[in-house]
Amino acid sequence: MENEKRKTVIELDNVRRDFKVGSETVHALRGVSFKIHEGEFVTIMGTSGSGKSTLLNQLGCLDTPTSGEYYLDGISVRTMSKSQRARLRNRKIGFVFQNYNLLAKTTAVENVELPLMYNSEYNAKQRREAAVKALEAVGLANRLDHKSNQMSGGQMQRVAIARALVNNPAVILADEATGNLDTRTSFEVLVLFQKLYAEGRTIIFVTHNPEIAQYSSRNIVLRDGKIREDTMNRNILSAAEALAQLPLPQDD
Ligand SMILES: Nc1ncnc2c1ncn2[C@@H]1O[C@H](COP(=O)(O)OP(=O)(O)O)[C@@H](O)[C@H]1O
Ligand SMILES: [Mg+2]
After folding, report:
1. 15, 53, 63, 66: which to mutate for ligand 1, most atoms within 8 A of CB?
2. Ligand found nearest the CA of 19
3. Which residue minimizes the CA distance to atom 17 of ligand 1?
4. What are the alphabetically sorted keywords of the record (predicted)?
5. Is the pTM of this model over 0.85?
6. Most exposed residue of 165, 184, 230, 235, measured as fewest CB within 10 angstroms of its CB?
7. Total structural domains within the chain
8. What angle do CA 100, 104, 105 make, to 5 degrees?
9. Where do runs of H (alpha helix) occur along the chain?
10. What pairing do the DSSP bridges indicate for beta strands 41-45 and 203-207?
11. CA 212 remoteness from chain centre
């Protein structure tokens, strides 16, 4: 109910995506519709082959539907040219990947500045300021000049999250963002996503791990290219509390 008053950031209307493989057609998405409002933290779950990556590619403007409509921040994506989509993607979406996708041998602050290179509204000084601010927001103010290969997995993922935030995007899209991390570090990253959620960010977190749904505000389950469940979480667990209850790491 409360959601209806909030701005719609993402709207999918009967989105289908077919792939032709030889003489066969694979129906990866079979008519997916939903709206995501500003400030939601949505997990998208499903087993392997259920259509998660295909859906994420639609949401991230990396692919276009075979039919149906996708509106991102009110703009219809389907009719756009490739370069228009690239621009929209750069301005409206912050991506966080399983493998971090940072430039190696490049400092944290330089990695975070990258998305702003294509934005003429920022000069060098403003880029640096925005990158430092984003790194502060993820708790890495003391790691600005560390290179990617000098950081732990959790730190690299926090740099990637800072890079996703730096453009002040309409939505943050995370693809198995804790997939490469151990349990403790995964919870640290989840704590950060919950902090961003508390600050009003819109987050879509795609994962095959059902446990993560306990920490989001809404969970969408895909199966065979269709939505099987779409539920609000009335009892969002605290990732910080879960983290505090984990056994301490052993030194041996
Ligand atoms: N480029 C492609 N060409 C052909 N089939 C594809 C392609 N991408 C995905 N598929 C098929 O679409 C279905 C959904 O795949 P995918 O979206 O990758 O699922 P998930 O990410 O949930 O594992 C699968 O049956 C997969 O084989
Ligand atoms: Mg996948």
Report:
1. 53
2. 1
3. 51
4. ATP-binding, Nucleotide-binding
5. yes
6. 235
7. 1
8. 145
9. 52-59, 82-92, 108-113, 124-137, 153-165, 183-198, 239-245
10. parallel
11. 14
For residue 234, report the distance from its CA to the centre of ligand 2, in Å: 28
Q: 39-62, pLDDT tens digit by residue?
A: 999 999 999 999 999 999 999 999
Helix (H, G, I), strand (E, B) or coil at 174: strand
CA 249 – ligand 2 centroid, Å: 31
Query: 2 in a domain, yes or no?
Result: no
Give the atom of ligand 1 at the shortest distance from the alpha carbon of 222. 22
In-domain check, residue 164: yes
Measured in whole angstroms, the distance separating CA 71 from the mean position of its chain's CA atoms is 17
Question: Measuring from each residue's beta carbon to the nearest atom of ligand 1, which residues come in under 6 Å?
Answer: 19, 21, 26, 28, 46, 48-54
The number of the ligand 1 atom at minimal distance from the alpha carbon of 51 is 17
Q: Which CATH number do you get for residue 126? A: 3.40.50.300
Residue 231 lies in a domain: yes
From the CA of 17, give the closest atom in ligand 1.
12
Nearest CA to ligand 1 atom 8: 54
Q: What is the pLDDT of residue 236?
A: 98
Residue 186 maps to a domain: yes
- Domain hosting residue 222, numbered range: 7-245
